[in-house]
Queue: 2 jobs
Job 1
Amino acid sequence: MSDTPNAQKRPFLKSLEIDTRLLGMIGAFLLVCIVFNLLTDGRFLTPRNIFNLTIQTVSVAIMATGMVFVIVTRHIDLSVGALLATCTAVMGMTQTAWLPEIFGMELGHPLIPWITIAVGLITGAVIGGLQGWLIGYQAIPAFIVTLGGLLIWRNVGWHLTDGATIGPLDQTFILFGGISGTMGATWSWVIGIAATAASLLALWSGRRNKQKHGFPVKPAWAEALMMGLVAAAILGFIAILNAYTVPDRVIARNPSLYGCETAEGCVAAYGLPYSVLVLIAVAIIMTVIALRTRLGRYIFATGGNPDAAELSGINTRLLTVKIFAMVGVLSAIAGVVASARLGYHTNDIGTLDELRVIAAAVIGGTALSGGLGTIYGAIIGALIMQSLQSGMAMVGVDAPYQNIVVGAVLVLAVWIDIQYRKRVGAK
Amino acid sequence: MTAPLAEMKNVSIAFGGVRAVDNVSIELHAGEVVGLLGHNGAGKSTLIKMLSGAYKMDSGEIWIEGNKATINSPRDSRDYNIETIYQTLALADNLDAASNLFLGRELTTSFGFVDDSQMEAETRKIMARLNPNFKKLKEPVSALSGGQRQSVAIARAVYFNAKILIMDEPTAALGVHETAMVAELIGELKKQGLGIFLISHDTREMMELCDRVSVMKNGQMVGTERVEDVTEDDILSMIILGKNPKEAA
Ligand SMILES: Nc1ncnc2c1ncn2[C@@H]1O[C@H](COP(=O)(O)OP(=O)(O)OP(=O)(O)O)[C@@H](O)[C@H]1O
Ligand SMILES: [Mg+2]
């Protein structure tokens, strides 16, 4: 393509090469935020509320990234909430009972949280893999296997704990819970700047790579604007989190934790929670899998045309096992975050999460007909759901009405997506 | 004489009660095009799918270059340098041309990640040869016309230096010009020493492109003839009557 004469004629957004769907989702999210901010007289968009929204979204968002792969391959997983509960039950028992009692590690031993997390992830992988095997190799529909799983795993969790609440959990373990584990202002900036540098480098090397093969690239101004937007988004997010400061009464309890001698005049920011860092890591890994690995390519190919995938030599049965095992691991990670946030394992932890997770993936543009979906979409979907719920709670909408709205939004989101696809002629 | 490139001996397969292919033998030599003709449902696609690994035969043997071969999956077939253009094309509609071309054999970078730019560059090269008008490299193949999709499927089969090429109605959706290009391609590949199984309903085209033609009916082999030994009418009557007029004579 000859660049110069066309360059001016190309519309602004086209030059930026931003996915219009992404833009639509971000727009919807911002709309929700602005509306609630107006309804709550500015209480919705405070650093404190943004911080809370973020940590409330993490657990569902982590699982939603895995649900994308499940739905892309034309399956469904109804068991994630129950699987999360079994994993937190196993992890709760591991750290409070099994390791101390059977292996004689005293409570607070530095290895306990890490062994616990490893055990949790393995549990998730094994259960997920087992479900995947039943679906892939035994050809039982995923709906049935995971519907069974929904009943089984929640109550296996109940059995393991004798129905009791397990806790308090290990002090290091609960650092993954959100407000109980944050990095403080300085480290948050370090991470933010490193992330910005990495993103800009990725954009730049992507451009170089295209040029190397002689493919058209966006105009330089568009590239620079993109880089500016990305940098502003990352650093802006860090700035907002850092603007949420620890309340005085909390500092007064133990000023030395916040690097102060006395509580007087001590200002400390919470900064980036570890749980959010976990979500970001999960999002990056899952995106790389989706776009840059054979595994991801096979997942999308299988979703687009299972027969074609099979004829291309892809082992779609094993692929199914891998996908469900991945979801199992992600449910376990989500379980770490969810139980750390509560400080306990409870029987009803993760109840109805399967519906939130599926809704997040679907609001994020994952098509139930298979073959289409993005990781970032699922995360934005989770954010939209959580914003709606928190916003309505702040406005004082009763829980039953909240559910009515969320249900309607889910259907509406899918309808808009269908209309959009018809317009642009994509399948 | 050297061993045939590919030989299927007494192969059979049944689906439920239907004997889709019943005790059929066929062979293919290097630099040869063998045509398969027959009514809809005669068993042509099923026969070649056993060679391409899509179906496992119930009985019979496959020999490749004089050695007995075990083909249990499409991957096995590819390992014997057999490439197939399926009648259904077997494309993942949601992926672009390059991803489809390299599906199952992605080019990777030194870190093991899929190398989309490299694959796109290769796709541009091969498409320039097969269908110079092909420009929609970034779109999912669902956005392509039937003929464009067929070009992608053909490109996939010829890109990987096959020794044996199976083409199940490769020109069904192609225009006159594109069909001529495929005919030219077949001639070129033949010169390079490939063996080609070609399935088509166009008897005239088959008489031009093939060295030998085999006719199937109801899962059975009616007969195989060199094209110079028969007329188009002979072939047609084999297809319709299911009898080889030369044998009857
Ligand atoms: N997967 C399958 N399951 C059941 N029956 C099948 C299957 N594949 C093919 N058959 C049957 O086997 C027979 C041969 O089918 P095949 O597709 O080989 O025909 P064909 O000669 O390729 O026909 P066409 O010219 O229409 O492509 C048909 O009766 C068909 O119904
Ligand atoms: Mg056929």
Job 2
Amino acid sequence: MPIIEVKNLYKSYSRRAVLRDLNLSVEEGDHLYIVGENGTGKSTLIKLLLGLIEPDSGEIVFSKNRKTKIGYLPQQTEIQTDFPASVREVVLSGTLGGKRLPLYTARDKKLARDMMEKLNVSDIERRSFRELSGGQQQRVLLARALCATGGILLLDEPITGLDPVATAEFYRLTEQLHSEGVTIITVSHDVSCAVHYGNKILHLGHGEYFFGSSHEYAHSALGKAMLAGGHCHD
Amino acid sequence: MINELLGLFSYPFALRALLVGLLISVCAALLGTSLVLKRFSGLGDGLSHVGFGASALGLAFGVAPLYIAIPAVLLAAFGLLQLNKSGKVKGDAAIAAVSGSALAVGVTAAKLSSGMNVDINNFMFGSIYTLSGRDVLVTAVLCAVVLLLFVVFYNKLFAVTFDESFSSATGIRVSRYNALLSCLTAVTVVIGMRMLGALLISSLLVFPSLTAGRVCRSYRGVILCSLLVSVSAFLIGLIASFAFSTPPGASVVLANLVFFCVFFAVSVVMGRLKTKR
Ligand SMILES: Nc1ncnc2c1ncn2[C@@H]1O[C@H](COP(=O)(O)OP(=O)(O)OP(=O)(O)O)[C@@H](O)[C@H]1O
Ligand SMILES: [Mg+2]
């Protein structure tokens, strides 16, 4: 049974359609990559999945009531950057979701420490978030998303702005989470790596879309055109 | 001088002014951080104008101003929050429209009923020395609620203020916290209006966290620092108003302005030092 099922989804902004009759299903443990040009509705789909915006019609069904524990990495353009908050405060806030008592336990603190370690931001834990570089902020927010996940991770352009080392580390990290059974949905512009690391691909276009396994995608006409010449170095 | 001051606070009216002022300063500093950090600081301004309009209407119809001001301001707070969320009208434009209309209603009501008398003047500029024992009680309760909220839900308030989308993705009921915050802000504005007046109360909400934000790098730092700034600025302003017989409300705001300038200068100097190293 799929963990997320999207049925006949329509979404438009002031009568301009962005998503039209979208159908897809994500199984537990899938790593779905969403690719496509700018403005084709990738972030819109992520926000619909999170329930941040409402669809015009169609539905999104979550199994097992997992909806309450989703780790989310917003696209970088959408985060306010002049907020005075320390890195530690930001990462720790990821552990709050769905808790009755809004206090950080020793376990939360350890989780936050581990994730900061994983994303190599432990040494800047006391620095102010707004003073970091774009890539550093991205890693901090990724650590926060990892603290929040209860089995589902939605990442909107996680590798945009990361240096090659951090990018490689990101792919290693998601591979590891994938093997641990975490369901991941990643928006990316790197199609060859998406095919390499993801097991499913959603390619959004203006009007039509492709949804299928990455194997099917790589052998479709659209996939071949997108992959021409590109290799995912790992 | 010191003796004079102590002598003054032995008068109940001065003591009440001091108590209400300190309590309101605490509330305003805490609630203001959320508004400023969410870039919704205009809300305080809009609400205070609605408070003025409603009070003047109340006066015209012979209803106790507070009884009409509190519901009106609460309503306005929810309305503006909803408008801001739906994104149909930009928050700042909506606030400008609402506060202008409320002011116009208030001034018209005042003119048609009694003219611009002492009461209207008090709504605009406050009357810190005419506070009653009940005002002290109400403010104490409000302050207790605000403090409790910030102590118990401190972490969630941080999460909600820092990133609404992420918070609601992780299952935090963001709209509840927003509603609670604007509700408390509304009550703070109405009570603070009695003290500082409709024209000055909103600066009490905005200044402390704006000041703290110059030098503090963490949320905790901003919260604590703005509390300190807010309370000190009130005390300094009040004492200065005795010493130089300046209007109390304006003196408090000016003290806040001085704090802001000092903190701003410090942040510039700190920035310079950092880049030199
Ligand atoms: N809040 C909004 N109001 C109106 N139009 C919007 C809004 N958000 C997005 N859109 C429009 O919807 C379309 C899809 O936007 P979306 O952000 O989902 O694109 P995207 O695929 O994530 O693009 P990118 O690769 O640049 O991140 C765009 O044309 C955009 O202009
Ligand atoms: Mg996007």
